[in-house]
Amino acid sequence: MTCPLCGQRKARRGCPALGKQICAVCCGTKRLVQIACPSDCAYLATAREHPPAAAVRQQQHDLSSVMRAMRDLNERQSRLLVLVLSFLARYQPPELQTLIDEDVSEAAAALAATFETAARGVIYEHRPASLSAERLANTLKPVLAEAGRDLGTSFDRDAAVVLRRVEAAAREAGEPGADQRREFIELVGRVIRKQETQDAETAPVEEPARIIVP
Predict the structure, then answer these.
(1) Cα 137 to chain center, whole Å?
(2) Which tens digits make up the pLDDT trace of 87-130?
(3) I need a labelling partner for 74 at 20 to 30 A (CA). Which of 20, 67, 90, 163 fits?
(4) Residues with Cβ < 8 Å from 79, sequence gap 6 or more?
(5) How far, in Å, CA of 206 to CA of 31, rounded?
(6) Rg for the chain, CA atoms, rounded
(7) Residues facing residue 13 across a β-bridge
(8) How does pLDDT run across 44-58, given as a tens digit for each residue?
């Protein structure tokens, strides 16, 4: 039987999340990224106990990237950054459209410019150039509006700072090349899903997603 995810290799592992057999490579590379693995998955438990060197390097790289984005942010800005990253990890673009890092950078830049002008007392909505970026910005906008309700210009300034960080991180990650067009988006997915999995295992009390930085 051929793996239904890659359509190339033999399916030898039973995936409890998908209810079907998949190959070992897809199990290892798509785990907690494209596959919502249950906490009792034997392959997931084994990987956590004995992570390969490549996985350890990837986790270290991801953590370093998040720490750079959070550098010098105050508590409210840090929480707002986590809110934006959590939104990006769950965002589903319209069917047949793929979101890339450039879209994230454009959307974040347009929203940041809108908040910057609002902080100066000017109401003007900046819009991204691409349709995908505009759809992302329009979906994220009400999430930010709810977070900043009744907070005034201080929130506008904080939101602008955070969105500029997201813009820069997505732009730096999305260097030319097909393999890197979604590097930032996939990094965000790995970090948020890993943290949510750890929270689910250690803290049954419902809490907003957070990133723990040592």
Answers:
(1) 15
(2) 999 999 887 788 999 999 999 999 999 999 999 999 899 999 99
(3) 90
(4) 210
(5) 24
(6) 19
(7) 22
(8) 888 777 666 655 666
